[in-house]
């Protein structure tokens, strides 16, 4: 069984960053599993579950990534990944929810608390303040089918109560 690592990189955002990281990993024979990237303020965060080829250890990978020019000022962490590489059923996205409006304290917490009531799992969450001073939260969730309609209605009502708009999209299961 090959070694599996969690690679986390944080650095200033710049054009070509993902290409530089993914290109170096490819050159080393690393197979990417679940991967995410996001801009956070003026920074950028890349995270990936990586299957390492025979002969490439965690310390080797850390050293190789540190040599990438675009990562000269990055915080790079390469650690063993000891969990299952494949997510279970609750990691499958069944709905996408977008909530938009003015920023306010506790906004993400209130929306997430609603999801707990319906045994919904957040698969991905992205929140950002836009240039036009909007706050946008995008949630990709897994909601058990039996309570999905009620859950989405409650999320929409919660958003409306906070003077926010809410859009939902059902994702067809394959």
Per the principal axes of the C-alpha atoms, what is the gross shape? Answer: globular
What is the alpha-carbon Rg in Å? 19 Å
How does the helix and strand content classify structurally? alpha+beta
Total count of strands: 8
Describe the structure.
The protein has 174 residues and is of the alpha+beta class. It has 2 domains: 4-80, Alpha-Beta Plaits (2-Layer Sandwich); 89-170, ACT domain (Alpha-Beta Plaits, 2-Layer Sandwich), CATH 3.30.70. The chain has 4 helices and 8 strands. It has helices spanning 17-27, 58-66, 107-117, 148-161; strands spanning 4-12, 31-40, 43-51, 75-80, 95-101, 121-129, 135-142, 165-170. The protein has a 4-stranded antiparallel β-sheet, with helices on one face. It has a 4-stranded antiparallel β-sheet with strand order 6-7-5-8, with helices on one face. A hairpin with a 2-residue loop joins strand 2 (31-40) and strand 3. Helix 3 (107-117) packs antiparallel against helix 4 (148-161). The chain is globular and about 55 Å long. The model has no long low-confidence stretch (mean pLDDT 94).
Topology:
Blueprint: E1 4-12, H1 17-27, E2 31-40, E3 43-51, H2 58-66, E4 75-80, E5 95-101, H3 107-117, E6 121-129, E7 135-142, H4 148-161, E8 165-170
Brief synopsis:
The chain is an alpha+beta fold.
